[in-house]
Specification:
heterodimer, A: mainly alpha, B: 194 residues, mainly alpha, Four Helix Bundle (Hemerythrin (Met), subunit A), 6 helices, 0% strand
């Protein structure tokens, strides 16, 4: 459900994406601290990705069925990205009371 | 037998079947690449040290420019069909195909350089996830080239008999191609810069 193609808009978005690519590489040359470098690179990548999705893929003007299926995808994607965090938090199998048990059994 | 809703929209979804189909396919692709990105995070956070500067940033940046340019030509190929300019459409689609080919040639040089130094996926955890992610992405580029090649060749005949259906097929090809571009937009900083 998108309106007639807007050539000028596509060209402008293409140019903006190229400018953001230059900014990404230039920022890398500044050798920021790792947390800041990750933040800058990901913020620019998310901005570029949003531009591609909303303009080139016409997501800014779509039907609700498309949005519905993508919303479901986003939910599962967040779960998937949280898996590394779950693995860090996971304590199943870790002998929490190991010391106390050892003392109780006299070992 | 005619397949329904290839051009006209279904009353319940308000979409042609192909449109919903390609988006559901792309949703599954998000999960596929998402699983690998998640794996990357686990490997990186669990590693005692992570190599930096192993890849050629400039070659990666050039490939980013190539893929972004191909996304622009792809959307212009579809827009040309909307304005009934089949000649322009073919030109833009051919340029998109060529840009995809240049991307793969660059990737070939990158891979050759690594293998020439004996640095295959077995060499380190970083190179294992690098070859897995970029290899899968490269296969997607190749897949896109096959589809575009079909529409530059025998598939183009549909324009004469059913231009609306042909325009829809190019739109779906474009959606896939933009997704492949989108994945690279994230792969480039994650693998080459961070």
């Amino acid at each position: 459900m998108h309106s007639a193609p807007n050539i000028k808009k596509y060209l402008m978005i293409g140019a903006a994406l190229l400018v953001f690519t230059v900014i990404t590489v230039a920022a890398n040359q500044l050798h920021f601290a790792v947390p800041l470098a990750i933040t800058v690179a990901l913020v620019i990548a998310i901005t570029k990705g949003s531009m591609v999705a909303s303009v080139f893929m016409h997501l800014s003007d779509e039907r609700k069925w498309i949005y519905g299926s993508l919303l479901l995808t986003v939910v599962f994607f967040i779960v998937l990205m949280s898996v590394p965090m779950f693995t860090v938090m996971d304590t199943i199998g870790t002998p929490i009371h190991h010391a106390a048990t050892a003392e109780h059994t006299g070992r | 037998m005619n397949i329904p809703y290839t051009v006209e929209e279904r009353p319940d979804t308000g979409l042609a079947n192909g449109k919903l189909g390609i988006w559901l396919f792309l949703a599954s692709e998000v999960m596929l690449f998402g699983a690998l990105f998640s794996t990357y995070i686990i490997l990186r956070t669990g590693a005692e040290e992570w190599p930096h500067g192993e890849l050629n940033v400039w070659l990666g940046a050039v490939n980013t420019v190539i893929l972004i340019s191909s996304s622009v030509t792809m959307v212009l190929a579809w827009a040309s069909l909307k304005t009934h300019d089949f000649g322009k459409h073919r030109l833009y689609l051919l340029v998109t195909w060529l840009l995809a080919a240049i991307f793969l040639v660059n990737k070939y040089f990158e891979y050759s350089d690594h293998f020439g130094r004996g640095e295959g996926p077995w060499h380190s955890t970083f190179l294992a996830i690098y070859f897995t992610l970029t290899g899968l992405h490269g296969i997607h580029i190749l897949g896109g080239m096959v589809v575009m090649g079909y529409f530059l060749g025998p598939g183009a005949k549909l324009w004469k008999t059913n231009p609306d259906q042909f325009t829809n097929r190019i739109e779906y090809t474009g959606l896939y191609w933009h997704f492949v571009d989108l994945v690279w937009i994230f792969l480039f900083p994650v693998l080459y810069l961070l």
